[in-house]
Amino acid sequence: MKLAFVFPGQGSQAVGMGKGFAEEHLDRASRLLGFDLKKICLEGPEEELKRTEVQQPAIFTVSAAAYDLLIKKGIKPDVVAGHSLGEYSALYAAGSISFEDGVRTVNQRGRFMQEAVPEGTGAMAALLGGERETIISICLEIGNVWPANFNSPGQVVISGKKESVALAGEKLKSAGVKRIIPLPVSAPFHCPLMKPAADKLSERLAAITINNARLPVYSNITARPVTDGGKIKELLVRQVTGSVLWEDSVKNMIDEGVSKFIEVGPGKVLAGLIKKISANVEVISYEEVN
């Protein structure tokens, strides 16, 4: 019976997150970044917290603080995984990346991703219902639109050029997708349009130390465990333009003996996804741990 810690990505933020336990971590992050991340996190405004280069270090910092809280309580994971940005929090938990490098890197990652595509030209949409293979083939047929996240059975996110995402939406509706929800994002994440961001991130990662992980980290790109520091770097670069295989990752963790998941960070997005992937595992938030 194994325990997995899972770490959320963008979209899980909320003003006030980290209150009562993350202040020290937020102070450290504010000093590293040169702006008052703590104030934005705890007091807002929400619009400022939503900015990707603010949101990414904010979620990373609060997730790191939540992880440190669990460790103080004597609760340790057997394996870790994170959704997109959350992979950096998972790597912090696995001892691969330092808090300082994590904060600075995800802030830059956010900026690189924002700069990669002119604002308003890209889009993302969540698809509810529909078959995975059908979604992949329609995206291929239309071009300039790609599956970005395979989140859970019947929930896939697509990403790409605005007009291509809209066209894919129309085609996918007639191919059995029940609902298409445009996402309020500032850029089309996890698709080849992010190549300029991946190139810049590669340079940034080359300048920092990524240690071999102390425990298995399930990669978004392969849905398989990885511990080698060099391989982790390569996968983090590929993750910027590639699909997040979250459903596959969770299924593989369960197949390899994970029976309990703790969501470590703000929100309960991953708990909801995991419950859709399997009804036979326990899923709780770090806040529910005594």
From TrEMBL:
User: Which keywords appear in this protein's UniProt record, sorted alphabetically?
Assistant: Acyltransferase, Transferase
A single Gene Ontology molecular function, please? [acyl-carrier-protein] S-malonyltransferase activity
**BP GO annotations:** fatty acid biosynthetic process
Specify the domain of life of the species encoding this protein.
Bacteria
Matching Pfam families, A to Z? Acyl_transf_1
Q: Where is the Malonyl-CoA:ACP transacylase (MAT) domain?
A: 6-286
Q: Does the keyword tRNA-binding apply?
A: no
Active-site residue list: 84, 190
Keyword DNA repair belongs to the record: no
Spell out the reaction equation it catalyses: holo-[ACP] + malonyl-CoA = malonyl-[ACP] + CoA
The UniProt similarity line reads: Belongs to the fabD family.
Q: What is this protein called?
A: Malonyl CoA-acyl carrier protein transacylase
Q: Which organism is it from?
A: candidate division WOR-1 bacterium RIFOXYC12_FULL_54_18
